[in-house]
Amino acid sequence: MLTAFATGFATSISLILAIGAQNAFMLRQGLRREHVFELALLFALSDAVLIAAGIVGFDIATERFPLLPQYLSWLGAAFLVIYGGLRFRAAWTGSGGMVAAGATAPLGTTLAVGAAFTWLNPHVYLDTLGLIGAISTGFQGVQPKVAFAFGAIGASFVFFFSLGYGARFLAPLMGSDRAWRVLDAGIGLTMWALAALLLARPAA
Fold it and tell me: How many C-beta atoms lie closer than 10 Å to residue 178's C-beta?
């Protein structure tokens, strides 16, 4: 049981640690201290649903709908291009760090963007429905699989809440407009690079 839990935790945390759209957005919201709890909870619960689905029904969705990964790639790439463009505009105008000036985004908008980063991101499905689902097949029986699932889901909760609330320790470094311009430009580059990777994937 402990081995299954540790394997699930290690697998999940190693996949999440790769810099991606969710992480960049979570970091930015953590630095701005905007809706951190709600966004971290959204990301973690979304991962929990997808991890459970991957363990219960590995690869069933792609077998039934072989074109689904391609459609998700197109949708995800389009979203990343648009959001990346918004971050480049913020870097150009210097509006990204305006916390005290009443520029806080509504909770609904923040959660909608966060949901898009999760549910329109094919890499999330690859990690949860694919890799985690595949690794879970190495554990036989209900209890080991449940322990593996709790380990994988627990890693998601630990990571997103740590990233969101830990970002505030970087706040002293982000006190200047220039620092926010650099951060927004970096996030924009990350989004466009991820979009290019999605579009470069061969058709299913």
Answer: 11
> Cα–Cα distance between 21 and 67 in angstroms, integer?
23
Phi and psi at residue 13, in whole multiples of 5°?
-65, -35
DSSP 1: -
Helix axes 36-56, 142-166, angle to 10 degrees: 160
Total structural domains within the chain: 1
Model confidence pLDDT, tens digit, residues 112-167:
999 998 898 877 877 777 677 767 766 778 888 899 999 999 999 999 999 899 98
Cα–Cα distance measured from residue 137 to residue 48, given in angstroms and rounded to the nearest whole number: 17
**pLDDT confidence bin for 76, thresholds 50/70/90:** low
Domain limits at 94? Answer: 2-200
